[in-house]
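task queued by scheduler; priority normal; single chain, no ligands, no partner chains; default sampling; output format set to structure tokens
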Amino acid sequence: MKSFQCLIIAAALLLVARTGYAQESPVVAPDPELAGTFAEYAKAAELFYDGKPDAVKKLWSHGDDVTLSGAAGGQTAKGWKNVSERLDWASSQFSRGSKAVELIQQTVSGDFAYVVQYEHILFYPPGQSKQSKRDYRVTTIFRREPEGWRVTHRHADTLLKREAIK
């Protein structure tokens, strides 16, 4: 959350530098419950990349409106049943994995929040002795629900290098 606070301060300083004055809107501290969810999600990812998806699945909304556009391609999964099955399948593709994150943007507004980040995954494909690496560009959307903050959408892809449109 420290980087999020720095981002808010940097944006405020940029506003003052550009306009010569600061607007009268208060800077709201990040939601502590959401910060806890982000920390829990990071721990759950360690299990996910070891072929154990349950901790990640627990942090998802189980509604019919959830969506998942996974980095392995294919159609976007819609609805908890389909998303749950996709998470199970995706997690089964990894073992002994670890994840490093580069935060790009994190925004909270009311009962919604989103995170844009790069994820760097080191893992062993199940049954193989050679370690592999995947680099993802990810957007995750969270919604505050009665149970707390839950993931409602995740989109990940592997295209980290810009290419000309053909």
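post-processing summary
- The two ends are 40 Å apart (CA to CA).
- Helices lie at 2-19, 32-48, 54-58, 80-91.
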